[in-house]
Amino acid sequence: MPGDSLRIALFTHDTFGLGHVRRSLRFLRRLSEEAPQAALLLVSGSPALGFMEDLPPRTDVVKIPTMARTGSSGNRPAHLPLPLADLTGIRERVIRETMLAFSPDVLLVDNFPLGSRGELKSTLEALRGSATKTVLGLRDILDAPEIVRRDWMRQGTYDVLDHLYDAILVYGMQELFDVAEAYALPPPTAEKLVYCGYVTDAPAPPRNENGSDGFLLATGGGGGDALPLLTAFLDALPLLPSPTPAILLTGPLMGAADRAALESKASRTPGVTLRTFEPNFAPLLSSAQVVVSMCGYNTTAEILAHRARAVVVPRTWRYGEHEKGEAGGREWEQLLRARCLAKMGLIDLIEPEALTPERLAERIALRAAAPQPDPHTVSLDGVNRVAREILNLASSNGQEGRTIA
Amino acid sequence: MRRNLLISEALGQVDCPPHVLLIAGAPELGAFTLPSHVDAVMLPPFVKTAGSGYVPRTAFDSTKSLLAMRAGIIRATLDLFLPDVVITDKLPRGLMGELDAALDDLSGHTRFVLGLRDILDHPLAVHRDWMADGNEAAIRESYDAVWVYGDPSVYDPRYEYGLSHDVSNKLRFTGYLDPSPRLKGNGQELTHEDRLPARFTLCLVGGGQDGGPLARGFARAVLDAPGRHGLVITGPFMPAETKAELCSLARGQNRLRVREFVRHPGRLLRRAERVVTMCGYNALTEAVTLGVPILGVPRVKPRIEQLIRAQRFADLGLIDVMYPDDASPDAIGSWLENDIPPPPPADQCIDFKGLERLPEFVEDIIPGRLSYRQKPAREVP
């Protein structure tokens, strides 16, 4: 493709939740600030694209067909319910066509080295001989190490990391979770790792500590999974030593039935405000007395950035399977993250099987009286570091003709 | 985009909805939600230049590079999706021939249908563009049918554009695509609008790109005389300064309201006592079925499609027309004051059953492939 400006492509998978698209948009925004001449392209099938704010300048989107998994369990509005193989085939080809035509200097793949069902493999192979640098961005913790190792063995991911990626950026800290050790990366792959710190929004504003607007905030993240925790929270409210107003954020992906159940419960609980989505989440976080949430990546990073007093109850059932509970299989990502952070005293953890309204009420009350956490040991500079690494790779690939700024 | 969403939805109103895949330039992400049988592939868009060319809107350096990418994606998607029918909107070869390779690949398997708006532009302009783009040849070689989302008693493109005999033979009229029946039978739909005055005039300016002058003229007309109430929908693309100006006019009093975007303008239309509107296909189709006085102020450049539509609808006695240069606040104000008898029922002179008829049309193209026993019209919650 002709043209001399720098080109950067991001690929974001479209499994459950909002976090991945939001993270990609943060990178894009920072990249467009750092390299205003750069052409930026986001490729994703995520239905969450629809909930996001404006795109940064010089950014385009290619939306590919959506790989289901958008709602809560039993109610998955599988768009285009084609046989999975056909859908994967279309996605694979569209991604490849896009990348070959765009010919980016750097391609950043978010979190899943091969996308869904291997859809990225042919693209990565086709780019291997080209000038494109391929970069994998990994969330701090993927799942229990033995599960990741097993999946990566089965899916041939170790080879992919070895041969098809130039760099691996970790959105986390080695001190908290050592990726090379946990997933048993061979030395050549481990050398590709760069720990970038947690990815959060711009620097947090000073915290409102006058306590005058004492309220509790319970957030369900994207919302598809939030019913059990938010229900327990509503049950816990009347058990608090002193009545405190509360804001509940359900998240835009909550299924209609879940939402109706919560609404009816919330309407019977005094002092509760229910909201679907709060584009301006940060001010709420920094003025809430206590935040109650699961331990998904984004919410947790924001909690740290805002030094919020948090009680977290990690999700261990699989995405979207909260009706089946753990019978649907378990995922350990949130629990591992929560344990690491709890050990450092940065959050208060209730192990999922120990969740009762009584315990939640008790821990909220304790947390409200506790000193504010001090996460100075946690690196929260992920957005800057990731953008810088990408731009460094782009300028190191010999395409001096292309303009960065 | 809105029209093709409507079409996709209408195709789902059968016993067993087909898989519908929309391929389109990404306008505003998230400005719409897709029904469950529909998914979309969205491509970086081209925008029209002041001349007749197209340029990439954002990330791409050149028209050529974006074109190559779009053509590649379209071809890959269609090759693998292998649709029974492709309905192409307006441009039989896509933009600058981006559809050619796919037309070739799928010939023999897929039926191609060209969908045309009721009116495209001045006949000379259409003739020039169609010659330049090779549209008639493409229709002749690759298309099984041409569907016009209109009514020959309003405008007959076969005659107006002098289409050749073989192309004319492929052409059928679906009738206008009127989304309003979907809203029927729902009296509670407007509870959140209840702060609206009982009697008001609604002003619609389409997407808003060039709707500033009309919106401003209307706003002034409303404020000029006590007792007038108006609501302006600016559309998502109105320039920010114009929007700000309208908002400042509306501030501090309750006779004029301004909104940026409403998902179902039909709901507001149903409450309006009169309508002042530009003359785009969707707005006018929806407005004339309501039986209230309508003032049409068409766009007249760079295309005169709206002007032609406005004149034809006016000839049928369905709307009043004002040329944009004449649409001063005073002129709009005196139209608001005029005693206007209710127009005749539009569905007696124009066919509005296009959406209902679409599944049948598809069935005719691919007999036996679509289970087309229609469901009753869906109520929008």
Structure in a nutshell:
In chain A, 36% of the residues lie in helices and 14% in strands. Chain A is an alpha/beta fold and 405 residues long. In chain B, the strands form four sheets. A six-stranded parallel beta sheet of chain B has the order 11-10-9-12-13-14, sandwiched between helices.
Name its key features:
heterodimer, A: 405 residues, alpha/beta, seven-stranded parallel β-sheet, 14 helices, B: alpha/beta, six-stranded parallel β-sheet, four-stranded parallel β-sheet, 35% helix
Distance between the termini of chain A: 20 Å
Could you tell me the radius of gyration of chain A in angstroms?
21 Å
Main sheet specs of chain B: 6 strands, parallel
Helix content of chain A: 25-40%
Strand content of chain A: 5-15%
Look at the helices and sheets of chain A and give the structural class.
Answer: alpha/beta
Query: Total helix count of chain A?
Result: 14
What class would the helix/strand composition of chain B place it in? alpha/beta
Strand numbers in spatial order across the main sheet of chain A: 3-2-1-4-5-6-7
* Order of H and E elements of chain A: EHEEHEHEHHEHHEEHEHEHEHEHEHH
Radius of gyration of chain B: 21 Å
Spatially, the strands of the biggest sheet of chain B line up as 11-10-9-12-13-14
**With helices defined by DSSP (H or I, 4 residues minimum), what is the helix count of chain B?**
14
- Stretches of chain A where pLDDT is under 50 for at least 5 consecutive residues are 69-78
Q: Largest protein interface?
A: A-B, 41 and 36 residues
Query: In terms of per-residue confidence, which ranges of chain B show pLDDT below 50 for 5 or more consecutive residues?
Result: 185-193
- As a percent range, the share of helical residues of chain B equals 25-40%
Q: Give the strand tally of chain A.
A: 13
Helix-strand sequence of chain B: HEEEEHEHEHHEHHEEHEHEHEHEHEHH
- Span of the ends, CA to CA of chain B: 22 Å
